[in-house]
Write a structure and sequence with these properties.
The structure is a single chain. The chain contains ten helices and 14 strands. The longest helix is centred in the first third of the chain and has 22 residues. The strands form four sheets. An eight-stranded parallel sheet has the order 3-2-1-4-5-6-11-14, with helices on both faces. It starts with a strand and ends with a helix. Strand 1, helix 1 and strand 2 form a beta-alpha-beta unit. Helix 2 packs across helix 4 and helix 6 crosses helix 9. By secondary structure, the chain is α/β, with parallel strands linked by helices.
Length: 310
């Protein structure tokens, strides 16, 4: 029996690679389309190296695919606010290329990776790019009948992340410097969701009931950044110093992203999810491996104790 094909544009990256894996686990034939080969490529996945800015590249890659995901674009608010032209090129025009490829391939649905920042007046060019791209997705549906699902992700964390990821930066500081400095407000609040939970939900939304909907993918609870930092400090043997700049972070929201109101999104929360504490421990182990550090015995003991307690 022929498997249903899904292509993941940007499937070599943090979130995209996890979604590609979740699709494979769900029984899809998966194509990964990206500028660079995925270091996480599975034997049952096809890698297509190409440029989203080359429309014909994307059209050829998406041929015979029923589902087209797009994760390509500048994902850092800090980077986007200093590169407006590149943000328009990658985050908006690139998304239109992916939409056009989905249309030409006769795809059943287009899935766009947006952000909770579409609700905000913060986020600078990153937020504007997401808002514009959502409108293009909606317009393609109105003009061509291309069904879609827009996924507005909250704060992601987990393995395969890098310096662009907030939790990754905090953990790296804690391990390397025994100190964490957060320039923003100690009272800033985020809703963290583990990337594997987000990836699983990103596949579950292929059910017909989620077609042409705007969905918010977030964690189970809202957590102040200072509480997150204290959790990290308690996990590191010898303790970690915590410092807060209490500055208004340029481009970031403090407590809530909700200000500007695009089309309302429905929050989608999994009842089966990775506990934040366990997720942080897993990130620490991953970071140790990547930094070529020997894992301290105390951390191993903490992990064993925590697992027993669970």
């Amino acid at each position: 029996m022929t498997k249903t094909c899904a292509i993941v544009c940007g499937g070599s990256g943090f979130l995209g690679s996890h979604v590609a894996d979740a699709l494979s686990e769900a029984g899809f034939r998966v194509k990964i389309f990206d500028l660079k080969p995925s270091p996480y490529l599975r034997d049952d996945q096809d890698m297509i190296v190409g440029d989203l800015m080359d429309l014909q590249d994307v059209v050829r890659a998406a041929e015979n695919c029923q589902y087209v995901y797009n994760f390509v674009g500048i994902s850092s608010i800090e980077e986007a606010k200093d590169r407006p032209l590149e943000t328009v090129r990658l985050n908006i025009l690139g998304n239109v290329h992916a939409l056009e490829a989905a249309r030409q391939s006769g795809a059943k649905r287009f899935i766009y990776a947006s952000s909770v920042y579409v609700y905000s007046e913060a986020g600078s060019f990153y937020r504007v790019g997401k808002q514009a791209s959502e409108r293009f997705v909606e317009a393609y549906h109105e003009r061509y009948g291309l069904d879609y699902t827009i996924l507005r992700y909250a704060s992601l964390y987990g393995r395969r992340s890098n310096e662009r990821n907030g939790i990754y930066r905090l953990l790296k500081q804690a391990l390397e410097q025994k100190s964490i400095t957060y320039e923003g407000s100690a009272d800033a609040v985020r809703e963290y969701i583990h990337v594997t939970d987000a990836a699983r939900l990103s596949v579950e939304i292929l059910e017909d009931s989620y077609a042409n909907r705007h969905l918010i993918l977030t964690g189970q609870e809202r957590l102040p950044v200072k509480s997150l930092m204290r959790m990290i400090a308690e996990m590191i043997p010898g303790g970690v110093e915590l410092h807060f700049g209490n500055k208004k972070e340029d481009g970031h929201y403090d407590v809530t992203p909700y200000a500007f109101q695009p089309k309302l999104g429905h929050k989608l929360i999994s009842t089966d999810y990775v506990d934040l504490g366990q997720g942080l421990l897993d990130c620490l182990s991953d970071l140790h491996e990547r930094l070529h550090l020997a894992e301290p015995p105390d951390i191993k003991q903490f992990i064993r104790t925590n697992e027993v307690a669970e």
